[in-house]
């Protein structure tokens, strides 16, 4: 039997403010983590694509300042974003799976391609192409098979499921809210990452 406290917590998480805040915080933290990871990648690429810090060995290329701090912050931020989506908005908002996957693999793929064009590293070309394909193909598949789920989720902000039989339709306001949260929260996350990594 479910306790009254558990029922209250479950009900609270299903209300519109919690679901909107969950979607927004999820995209904010995931974008913040991605922005920090991209900043680290750009710094490491700027010194030739590899570096090291600490340890008993002779270091040929030391890592740029801040890399050791930004990597764990990026990972913790992304993890917070995933937890926020799972706890508060698992079925509402723009798909973290589709676009988050593209953000991670497509973004890193672009950096590897830059390494190829900037330094002539053939590994950068191969890995870059593989990563871009890994980011684009799953999102393309989702857009082809379930486009509404990619942009809206399976339910609206109030928790009402979109029915396959069409009894619960998605309106323009549902798209505006879901995509607006995604764009604003992601932009805020990248902006904070740019300031933090600056």
Structure description:
With 198 residues, the chain is mostly helical. It has one domain. 72% of the residues lie in helices and 0% in strands. The chain has seven helices and no strands. The longest helix has 31 residues. It is elongated, with a radius of gyration of 20 Å. The N and C termini lie far apart (52 Å). About 3% of the residues have low confidence.
Give the domain tally: 1
Beta-strand proportion:
under 5%
Distance between the termini: 52 Å
* Residue runs with pLDDT of under 50 for 5 or more positions: 4-9
What Rg do the Cα atoms give?
A: 20 Å
Number of helices: 7
Structural class: mainly alpha
Tell me the series of helices and strands, N- to C-terminal. HHHHHHH
User: How can the largest sheet be summarized?
Assistant: none
Helix residue percentage: over 70%
The residue-averaged pLDDT reads 85
How many beta strands in the DSSP annotation?
A: 0
What's the overall geometry?
Answer: elongated
Keywords: Membrane, Transmembrane, Transmembrane helix
Transmembrane segments: 70-89, 96-117, 123-144, 175-197
Features:
mainly alpha; 7 helices; single chain
Describe the secondary structure blueprint for this structure.
Elements: H1 4-13, H2 16-46, H3 67-88, H4 96-119, H5 122-145, H6 147-152, H7 172-197
Helix pairs in contact: 2-3, 2-4, 2-7, 4-5
Question: Quick summary of this structure?
Answer:
This protein has one domain (17-53, 61-197).
